[in-house]
Input
Amino acid sequence: MQRQSILTCPICGHRSVETMPVDACVWFHECQGCGATLKAKHGDCCVFCSYGSVPCPPIQTRAISRCCQATSNTAA
Output
């Protein structure tokens, strides 16, 4: 399982390497480039699945299309 993912801001293109939690989804992330709050796209469980180079650990380990039904709202 990969724990690091490169998040790319869809607004300014800023890229940052982030460590993903193994047991929670990250629904919001503040871009360090422009300050925008990234939110998971409709149908995605977290910002890593929407804007990351690697999907979140729950998706990696379960090989399913959804995860984290009601877990965390933490930012990376």
Notes: Confidence is low (pLDDT under 50) at residues 70-76. The chain is about 15% helix and 20% strand.
